[in-house]
Amino acid sequence: DRIKGSLGITQFANYALTLDALEGELCDALTAGVPPVPGALPLRDRYLPDVGSVLEMADRLCAGGALALCAFARPADPNRGPADYVLLVQERSENVVNAARQLAVIPKGFHQPLTDFRGDAKIAATLRREMEEELFGREDIDNTINVMHAADPMHPVRLSAPMRWLLKENPGALRMECTGFGLNLVSGNYEFACLIVVDSDDFWERFGGQIEAGWESSSLRQYSSLDTESLTELAHDDAWSNEGLFAFLQGLRRLGKIGGNRVDAPAIDWMVRP
């Protein structure tokens, strides 16, 4: 009934110059018609040669993070139709390290601390930070472009208006669930797939117009949780990043179970291939 483990801290360059290069190497080989077999991919042969090396996370660099399908409740609308959830999907910018120019859920980020190394070890801490940064416009907590000076970057007085409304003014309005955990065989990363649900219609009515993606996204798309046809087409889009599709399907499957009449999601089932 739980996933238990230990976390450590490393420098981003240690990841960017090693395991993060595996996907590019694989794509280059496939483009050139080189079979991805042992001996053909030098970086993979060194850092991630077999399934055993994937599972031995304590003996290798295993970076990763959390990403979540966000679902915001909306009231009925004469043009749009009955009450639903609006689901947000991003097209990633070409300037990001992971999933550049691909589809992904939002927020999506590496699991890393701000200033409280122990307190920020919780997955929810990364999700709240990424919501502030990627949806609510908090550029001051993006440590890729800023030096962190604040002692408590997520202190209530520093929160954006949307996050303050969710956490302080309407406690219980924000729900976060972990819908899956995966080890990515392309990159070796760990991925916590999550679902973020805001059930209050008031939130979208008040703050929907303020939600805006930052530099990590080239654009945002919105989908209705009642639009089965569009959601089915989206799930089959070839532009998805692998971890993005994983989180999207897991989140949509869970939302279909808890969302009541606001959701008409396509059927999503597991199948294990021999």
Number of strands: 7
Tally of contiguous helical segments: 9
Q: What string gives the helices and strands in order?
A: HHHHEEEEHHEEHEHH
Rg, nearest Å: 19 Å
Helicity, as a percent range: 25-40%
Short description:
The chain is of the alpha+beta class and 274 residues long. Helix content is 29%, strand content 19%. The mean pLDDT is 93.
Considering the chains and any ligands shown, give keywords for the structure.
single chain; 274 residues; alpha+beta; 7-stranded mixed beta sheet; 9 helices; 19% strand
Element layout with pairings:
Layout: H1 12-16, H2 22-31, H3 42-47, H4 51-55, E1 64-74, E2 84-92, E3 103-105, E4 108-110, H5 123-134, H6 161-169, E5 174-183, E6 190-198, H7 201-207, E7 217-224, H8 228-235, H9 242-258
Parallel strand pairs: 1-6
Antiparallel strand pairs: 1-2, 1-4, 2-3, 2-7, 5-6
Account of the 3D structure:
With 274 residues, this protein is of the alpha+beta class. Helices cover 29% and strands 19% of the residues. The protein contains 9 helices and 7 strands. Strands 1, 2, 3, 4, 5, 6 and 7 form a 7-stranded mixed beta sheet that branches. It is globular, with a radius of gyration of 19 Å. The protein starts with 11 loop residues before the first helix and ends in a 16-residue tail after the last helix.
